[in-house]
Amino acid sequence: MLYYLAMMLMVLSYAFRNSTPGAEINYNKLLKQERVITERCFGQLKRRFPILQYVCRVKLENVPKIIIACIVLHNVAKSLGYPDNKTQMKMKEILRMTNFLSAN
């Protein structure tokens, strides 16, 4: 999925070679914004699934399956409201404990 996005952006960059400077500036702004979003998504995935951050010791043909599984699990976790990282998990646990203690 992300590979397709990268390929599409490369094709679009080729299409803008003979364009006006204003169009190039607008395109570069858009590309910069999309790149930041993509990098943030990869960062979230890497934090949640360390297997994506380090050397993966599996057969090469299994790597795309692992990446897709991580993306699906990440989306399920986001839709169920699970926090992205340990800090958020600790904060939620502290809030639960304070709510529990104040209720008793």
TrEMBL record:
GO terms for molecular function: metal ion binding. InterPro entries: HARBI1_dom. Residues 1-22 form the signal peptide. Its cofactor is a divalent metal cation. Keywords: Metal-binding, Signal. Residues 19-75 form the DDE Tnp4 domain. Transmembrane segments: none annotated. This is DDE Tnp4 domain-containing protein. The lineage of its organism: Eukaryota, Metazoa, Ecdysozoa, Arthropoda, Hexapoda.
